[in-house]
Amino acid sequence: MPNRINDAIRGLKEVRLVGDNVEQGVYPFNEAMRIADELELDLVEISPKADPPVCRIVDYQKFLYQQKKREKEQKAKASKIIVKEIRFGPQTDEHDYNFKLKHAVGFLKEGCKVKAYVFFKGRSILFKDQGELLLARFANDLEEYAKVDQLPQLEGKRMIIVLSPKKQK
User: How far is 31 from 151, CA to CA, in rounded Å?
Assistant: First the structure.
């Protein structure tokens, strides 16, 4: 919601002024407008729900620019969650398992989530218990690097487990 400025601020008897170039305090609305005009700046409503509403005397264009800049910085700081997938077959042999386990450790150290799944083709769906054992072993082997977000569950022809990295101390 955009901030109201100058004459768009209506129906107020008094406002609380804050800012660098003005003495802070509660002023009648007309007085606040007069001060803004003298300084050749805009009266911008910052917090309309406060009692009395909070206004700031600033150059509105500069205010908008700084607000956008702050939002952009916050967006950049927000962490992006990357999910890496690792696929197993129900009869994955030891070498392949260890190879995929090593990759999963690397992904978790980078801070990525790992979604491991066993893919059942054709009649291999009969080996659901082998798939569940494989994923349980996988989660157990990664216990020091990750915590389990979602226990193994069957979705169509896939049995999926989701792991997220533990916070490094």
Answer: 64
Q: Which of 46, 73, 100 is the last residue of a domain?
A: 73
Q: Which residues contact 24 (CB under 8 A, 6 or more apart)?
A: 16, 17, 18
pTM score = 0.52
- Give mean pLDDT in consecutive 10-residue pieces for the chain, a chain of 169 residues: 75 83 85 87 86 87 90 82 86 89 90 88 79 88 86 84 80
**Residue 154 — φ and ψ, nearest 5°?**
-85, 125
What CATH number should be reported for the domain holding residue 111?
A: 3.30.110.10
Shortest CA distance to 93 belongs to which of 104, 82, 101? 101
- CB of 53 closer than 8 Å to CB of 45: yes
Residue 92 falls inside a structural domain: yes
Determine whether 8 is exposed, middle or buried from the number of CB atoms within 10 Å of its CB (0-12, 13-18, 19+). Answer: exposed
List, edge to edge, every strand of the sheet that includes 42-47.
Answer: 25-28, 14-18, 54-58, 42-47
- Amino acid code (one letter) for 148: V
Q: What DSSP element (H or E) covers 95?
A: helix 94-110
Tokens of 102: 């090593």
Last residue of a domain, one of 25, 48, 73: 73
